[in-house]
Amino acid sequence: MNKPLMAKATAVWLVDNTTLHFKQIADFCGLHELEVQGIADGDVAAGVKGFDPIANNQLVQEEIDKAEADPAHKLKLKFNSAAVGEEKRRGPRYTPLSKRQDRPASILWLVKFHPELSDGQIGKLVGTTKPTIQAIRERTHWNIANIQPIDPVALGLCKQSELDTVVQKAAAKKAADGEVMSDDERRKLVSTEQSLGGEPEPKIPSAISGLETFSLSENADEGEADEEVDNSDILDADSFFNLPDESGDSEEQP
After folding, report:
1. Could you say which of 23, 85, 195, 225 has the lowest number of CB atoms within 10 Å?
2. 3-state SS, one letter per residue, for the chain
3. Least trusted range by pLDDT, from 16-20, 127-131, 238-242
4. pTM of whole model > 0.70?
5. In the chain, what are the domain boundaries?
6. What is the pLDDT of residue 136?
7. Neighbour-count burial for 42-77, b at 16+ CB within 10 Å, e otherwise
8. Helices 22-29 + 7-17 axis angle, to 10
9. Which residues contact 187 (CB under 8 A, 6 or more apart)?
10. Acidic residues bias: where (predicted)?
């Protein structure tokens, strides 16, 4: 650990109980020098109770004495054997309980649209385990019939920049292995800025799907031909009714 616990509260205690310079306190607590000065003036961290680093096994009095005597001396955290290796520990990303049910959908999306990603890369992105990823890859997951692929960025499980970085690394590894990428895979490697700045592709509305070969002119010609046939079949009204000839002589009325 490079910084103390409760850094701002520790800075409050050091300002109130030592004669250290603001720069020394700022470097030790990971704060800005002006922020420490604001603590001393009462403008910053008002109401924050000081956290004693000596009583909490983070600093020794001898170290404070050296720093007070030498303004150039930098405070050092007390060695804690229990903290050795903690900064190197890595594991799956923590996922909040409210979003854990969305992980299978995000895994299915990554497996479907980015098959070049390894199980380890997917696990770090969405915070899951390799058996779960393998079950979704092989479609043996207990709820596979109800899982719909959803972008993990849209679900808030990872950032778009993190996804882009992992995909680019996977593409570089694939190219180093001598594998040739298809056109669809290359399109998936477009950065977020390029994809958002590009023009949308024209799409056929779903309401007229299947009518791609429809031609208005051909149908119009067929319609005119049908009308000609229908007009030829129409009979004269006189053929249905025996009407007197208006041009002939009519019977004289008495």
Report:
1. 85
2. CCCCCCHHHHHHHHHHHCCCCHHHHHHHHCCCHHHHHHHHHCCCCCCCCCCCCCCCCCCCHHHHHHHHHCCCCCCCCCCCHHHCCHHHCCCCCCCCHHHHHHHHHHHHHHHHHCCCCCHHHHHHHHCCCHHHHHHHHCCCCCCHHHCCCCCHHHHCCCCHHHHHHHHHHHHHHHHHCCCCCCHHHHHHCCCHHHHHHCCCCCCCCHHHCCCCCCCHHHHHHHHHHHHHHHHHHCCCHHHCCCCCCCCCCCCCCC
3. 238-242
4. no
5. 7-83, 97-196
6. 93
7. eebbeeeebbebeeeebbbeebbeebeeeeebebeb
8. 160
9. none
10. 219-236
Report residue 149 as tokens. Answer: 């692929």
